[in-house]
């Protein structure tokens, strides 16, 4: 009898946690929709001090387990610092597709994509072992996914990695200030994992390793299979021109420049 009561109490508590956090999300989203000044900061403050249990709802409406508000990258994901352009793009894709997320971190875009019924599978890569544990927890209630604690590079083997102690999103493959060795895979691995019968939408955010990742993916899939590529690159005019030329079968439809990096969304030309 006590065990049954415990299960009932736990179930009631879980429902309370869900509805409390959902209501908090709705209130925070409503308020920040009318406040442009420090919108991300306000959403994070409300969430940080009022969520209960082991998860919160991010600005994008997806569950994030074991929130770490000390990590700037988590705050960006939770507070909606990346804006709505790409998230809305993923939510409104009308054809069936697989989503490839390279440099997934805690999986914010993978989680957003998984909410679209046309997304039949998420394939995510995250080499940072600590962040990868959180990525797996965030997918506890998601179906049809593959998560890899791997980095995509131009060889199968090991690579030196800088694990940034201040911001998980700044960790990267690097030959300087390295403090970790990570497993890498190339197009040979990708060709075995990626199906030729499906369309793909790709997101790449790998802090300077993007050209190598892009080349490995393009040598693993045919252009016909790729619908879009969202990629963060160095914010330099010559670099942007290079990617436009490299992705000549695609059109740059969105460009958001920061001080050092720029987000680019390329969508395949319909005539190609």
Task: Give a topology summary.
Layout: H1 2-33, H2 39-50, E1 55-57, E2 63-65, H3 72-79, H4 85-91, E3 97-102, H5 108-114, E4 119-125, H6 129-138, E5 145-148, E6 151-152, E7 157-162, E8 172-173, E9 180-185, H7 187-193, E10 200-204, H8 210-218, E11 226-234, H9 237-246, E12 250-257, E13 261-268
Parallel strand pairs: 3-4, 3-10, 4-5, 6-9, 10-11
Antiparallel strand pairs: 1-2, 7-8, 7-9, 11-13, 12-13
Helix pairs in contact: 1-2, 2-3
Overview of the molecule:
35% of the residues are buried. The strands form three sheets. The protein has a seven-stranded mixed β-sheet with strand order 5-4-3-10-11-13-12, with helices on both faces. The protein has a four-stranded mixed β-sheet with strand order 6-9-7-8. The protein has 272 residues and is of the alpha/beta class. It has two domains: 56 residues; 184 residues, Rossmann fold (3-Layer(aba) Sandwich). The chain is built from nine helices and 13 strands.
């Amino acid at each position: 009898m006590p065990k049954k009561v415990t299960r009932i109490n736990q179930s009631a508590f879980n429902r309370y946690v869900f509805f409390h956090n959902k209501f908090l999300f709705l209130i925070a989203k409503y308020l920040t929709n009318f406040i442009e000044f420090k919108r991300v900061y306000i959403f994070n403050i409300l969430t940080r001090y009022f969520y209960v249990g082991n998860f919160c709802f991010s600005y994008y409406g997806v569950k994030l387990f074991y929130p770490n508000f000390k990590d700037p990258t988590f705050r960006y994901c939770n507070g909606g610092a990346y804006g709505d352009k790409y998230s809305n793009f993923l939510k409104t894709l009308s054809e069936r597709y697989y989503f490839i997320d390279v440099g997934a971190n805690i999986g914010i875009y993978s989680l957003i994509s998984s909410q679209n019924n046309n997304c039949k599978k998420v394939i995510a890569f995250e080499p940072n072992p600590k962040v990868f544990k959180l990525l797996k927890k965030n997918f506890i209630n998601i179906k049809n996914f593959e998560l890899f604690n791997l980095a995509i590079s131009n060889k199968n083997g090991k690579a030196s990695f800088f694990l940034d102690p201040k911001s998980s999103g700044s960790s990267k493959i690097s030959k300087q200030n390295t403090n970790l060795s990570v497993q890498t895979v190339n197009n040979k691995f990708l060709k075995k994992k990626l199906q030729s019968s499906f369309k793909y939408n790709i997101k790449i955010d790998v802090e300077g390793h993007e050209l190598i990742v892009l080349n490995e993916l393009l040598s693993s899939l045919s252009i016909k299979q790729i619908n879009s590529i969202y990629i963060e690159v160095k914010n330099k005019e010559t670099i942007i021109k290079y990617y436009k030329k490299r992705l000549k079968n695609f059109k740059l439809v969105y460009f958001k420049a920061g001080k050092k990096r720029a987000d680019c969304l390329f969508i395949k030309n319909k005539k190609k």
